[in-house]
């Protein structure tokens, strides 16, 4: 599937806007970023960089924001049409936001989000 970076970023924003308020209202000091691919060349769909709520402890002012990265090329390679792309981006957003809340990959797999 083909889609330029600007159109993909717009799609990610649309899917982010569709997420339940209960999921996104608790996000604190988190930015969403779209990149073409991981630096290590892996085929990750997304990545959470930061400290989950369960690890924050003495978290306060001055910390750089956590980042949720959505990778464009791996999504486009895995999806045959826009509907499939939207589903995969939605799943990736839920998966990475769950890491913010301290849910690990094993739990996500059990819940069907990995």
Summarize this structure as a short list of keywords or feature phrases:
about 110 residues; alpha+beta; three-stranded mixed β-sheet; 5 helices; 3 strands; about 45% helix; about 15% strand; globular
- Strand order, sheet with most strands: 1-3-2
The string of secondary-structure elements, in order, is HHEEEHHH
Shape: globular
C-alpha termini separation: 22 Å
The biggest sheet amounts to: 3 strands, mixed
Total number of strands:
3
Beta content comes to: 5-15%
Explain this structure to me?
- This protein has helices at 5-18, 21-24, 72-78, 82-100, 105-111; strands at residues 30-35, 46-49, 66-71.
- The mean pLDDT is 92.
- A three-stranded mixed sheet has the order 1-3-2.
- It is built from five helices and three strands, in the order ααβββααα.
- It is α+β, with helices and mostly antiparallel strands.
Concise overview:
The protein is built from five helices and three strands, in the order H-H-E-E-E-H-H-H. The chain is of the alpha+beta class. A three-stranded mixed sheet has the order 1-3-2.
Helix-strand layout with pairing:
Elements: H1 5-18, H2 21-24, E1 30-35, E2 46-49, E3 66-71, H3 72-78, H4 82-100, H5 105-111
Parallel strand pairs: 1-3
Antiparallel strand pairs: 2-3
Helix pairs in contact: 1-4
